[in-house]
Fold this protein.
Amino acid sequence: MNPKSDDSALTRVAAAQAQPNIALIKYWGKRDVALNLPVVGSLSITLDRLWTRTEVRFETGLDADRITLNGREDPKQLRRATACLDLLRSRAGLSTRARITSTNNFPTGAGLASSASGFAALVLAGDAALGLELSTAELSVLARRCSGSAARSIFGGYVEWARGERPDGEDSVARPILETDAWPLSVAVAITSMAEKAIGSTEGMNRTAETSPFQQAWIDTQEADLAEARAAIVARDFERLAVISEYSCLKMHALALAAKPGLLYWNAATVACMHRVRQLRAQGVPVFFTIDAGPQLKAVCEPAAAAAVAAALREVPGVLNVVETGLGGDAKLMDVAEAVAA
Ligand code: 2P0
């Protein structure tokens, strides 16, 4: 992973692509806010067709980092992006500022895990631009510090992010547990709103930890859920994975709904989609739902059922669009010109 450099020794540039991931066993809550350490482990699948592509260009002479997201300067994202690049700069012993140019081919900040793919791509591109040559585990640790779920988007397929025990968090890292090809499930994402959510995940988790009476029960029951999901994945047992995944999703939302004031991430179409998915499964269609901190519903299904599931969700009143995707691969470096053209 040598830095892709132009002719100037003063400019270091690289680009990377990462895909969002969807947790089947959810992450919600932090045991250390500063280091971004989770109170629970989590388990996810990485998607294929949705992506973030990011170029990072370190340039001497810049007085601050600059970020362009989807073609527009976006100062709102700057604080977190700078904090993330600072972790890489301190590894490299460098203070040079960077221009970040990033594109998502899906709505940003709307419960579609744009922070997961965004920070995974940023860390990978930054690592390459600076020539750090970090291992994937080290990249996952750094991505986690930038946004928890980004730890998982370093890897494709089925991924588990460990809670870790160490106070410094170095063991709170994601690892792949099964390749996509070993069990290539499909996902239909029902988009029910394009609006950015009012309460972001970071704030939502903090409010939940401070006020939800179910926080300790959530922590106490997570290990069993992870074990059940791992066993279902090893056995490629769809029904078993369906039951534990819907359980973890609903439990996370029950926990957040019981915060003060309650966090209600669903709209009417989200709920209608939940009922539709359960109806389909009762009719024998291998499909289950999961929902993150936003109103989009992700229906996970066997590939043979994907077209029927997507068609059924398109019929649900309030569904704006359904994106069909398979499971994807690892975050990867890409050609700089291709990333910026995206
Ligand atoms: C997850 N979510 O496991 C859970 C389920 C949303 C619901 O991880 O504060 O953006 O940056 O660590 O990673 C979203 O939280 O939060 C998330 P931070 P992040 O996918």
